[in-house]
Design goal:
single chain, about 375 residues, alpha/beta, FAD/NAD(P)-binding domain, five-stranded parallel β-sheet, about 25% strand, binds flavin-adenine dinucleotide
Amino acid sequence: MYKWIVIGGGIQGSCVALLLLEEEKVETEDLLIIDPHQQPLERWRTITDKIEMSYLRSPLVHHLDADPYSLKKYSSKHNYASGFKGQYQRPRLDMFNQHSMDLLEKIGVMACWLQGEVSGLSWTESGWKVCVADGRCFVSERVVLAMGVNHTPHYPSWAETCRDHASVKHVFEMDNELPETGDVIVIGGGMTAAHLAYALTQKESIDSVTMVKRHPLRIHHFDSDPGWLGPKYLNKYDKLTSYKERREVIQHARNRGSVTRDLYLKLLQQERTGRLDMYTGCIQEWIENADGTMQLVMEDQEKLKGSTIMLATGSSVAMPGKEWLDPVIKHMHLPCAPCGFPIVTKELEWKNGLFVAGALAELEIGPVSRNIAGARKAAERILQYA
Ligand SMILES: Cc1cc2nc3c(=O)[nH]c(=O)nc-3n(C[C@H](O)[C@H](O)[C@H](O)COP(=O)(O)OP(=O)(O)OC[C@H]3O[C@@H](n4cnc5c(N)ncnc54)[C@H](O)[C@@H]3O)c2cc1C
């Protein structure tokens, strides 16, 4: 019997586990973190490595540690050159990752790690029973759902017919790598697509890179206005009793499909030098030619040709873990908003010691919930209960 089980060991789950251990709310033997990967943050590190992102979008104070200047001190102590960049001092990705891994290692998170994929959750007389795909089950007093959304890639409707094609890849799939040759088409207009397109233009062996997006590039420093981190916007948001309205506010507040100015300028530079083509419009159809190359037919009937299509179209909008959460939602009458996401208390409790973090906590935490700042907020709220 565990005191806490955390499902998902990404940024969110690791942050909750870290704070529980750090604040001595639980001993390592009473905490279990279940995640399909070998190590914490593996999905985050794989995706960001693949697109060759070198600096985060968020500022230096957003990381897993309690002290806001922890990363700054870490950078000085370990002599990182150019550890931070720009007006908002965005941290170097490798430094952020090493800082996170060192923290998690020091506090003993690996001693709580179980590699596996949760496929069942039920409420029993002894507590929450969590089962993994290989059949093993564990019981815990409390459970934190922190599965994130990056394991559920979004495929646009035109891509449904070609998603299993060997040369059509989604960046969020773990088992594919960047192409090394040929004509590559990158789909998407946000940070992931922009980093990816830029990285591909840097490869001499690639013949051409085309970035296809539905709208002109939108420039924003952050995912959402920093006012969403504190009372400026949250006071009003917290007063909203309609969860439909909360969802609309979140959708409006998040700068989806936007890029930072420095990345925008880098793309323009590549376009000017002929290394990148940028195309704005909607894709109607995907066609495979007899020679194995592919064509995308655009709404204006223009045809774009490529040998590989890389989708950077984000994650699905559906609630993560829906397949195994649905039965427990029905059985326990867990409250859900019209968008299907959990309605939880201020401490992020759904019911009987079942907590949420990250995307699942969005209706309570607000637009920053999925981000690193949101992970700290979720961990602090859950700890109020612990
Ligand atoms: C390219 C990119 C750049 C970003 N940059 C920033 C940034 O600069 N700043 C910022 O604040 N945010 C950023 N974000 C947003 C956010 O911080 C990341 O998406 C982050 O990875 C979210 O953490 P997470 O824990 O919710 O999800 P993940 O990191 O995906 O971790 C969730 C974990 O749960 C596991 N899981 C899923 N289902 C199960 C299951 N059934 N059983 C067990 N485990 C399961 C997953 O496999 C995964 O390991 C970025 C996102 C992306 C995609």
